[in-house]
Amino acid sequence: MKFLFYILLLSGILAFGQDAAPFSDEVNAISKKYDSIWDANSESIVFTGSSSIRMWHSLKALFPEHQIINTGFGGSQAADLLYYLEPLVLRYAPKQVFIYEGDNDLSAKKRPKEIIATTHEIIREIHKNKADTKIVLMAAKPSISRWSLRSKYKRLNRKFKKMGAKNPLLTYADVWSPMLNGRKLKTDLFLEDGLHMNDKGYALWHEAIKYLVTNL
């Protein structure tokens, strides 16, 4: 009986260890990819966050005059980005960082206040690493599958906007408003899952953020 107890205890510890660092394979793959193509002698702009960034495959083509690094990792929340900040952001000492987090956090029933607290930690770590890095906080987007949570999204975005107004190195990018037609969601911007965007959705994002990309 005692032997069985220790077997179960060990199994629990091993399971916890396996779950303690989600996304590690994806983050390692991203790091390996940029090991071969990143030019440390050129300024970088990092786009990071959840799958809406990961699936923005046209970023490099949209900003060919800049060294664009896309470290988005699907399903991530703000706490995950904070955990992996070194390999995904800090190692590149970027001139500018675009962050898209909060979408999955709200879906996971985290409160806007908690998301903002984690975002402040992310910002502190980035500026501790490189004090003049410009940071763009992208609004959590509306979507078909999460439209019922829109009031929480609006509350979070108001907090992001307020943060952007308080710090000259922070800017808020409103990608929420262009995806609406009045109070209604533009449903033709999404893939079949009702969450991720198609090319038309990303075209709207490009229009919303292109003027914010730093002239390096």
Automatic annotation (TrEMBL):
GO molecular function list: hydrolase activity
Signal sequence range: 1-20
Statement: the UniProt record of this protein carries the keyword Ligase: no
UniProt entry keywords in alphabetical sequence: Hydrolase, Signal
CDD domains: SGNH_hydrolase_like_7
Superkingdom classification of source: Bacteria
SGNH hydrolase-type esterase domain residues: 54-204
InterPro entries: Ester_Hydrolysis_Enzymes, SGNH_hydro, SGNH_hydro_sf
PANTHER family documented for this protein: SGNH HYDROLASE-TYPE ESTERASE DOMAIN-CONTAINING PROTEIN, THIOESTERASE 1/PROTEASE 1/LYSOPHOSPHOLIPASE L1
Protein name, entry field: SGNH/GDSL hydrolase family protein
Organism: Maribacter chungangensis
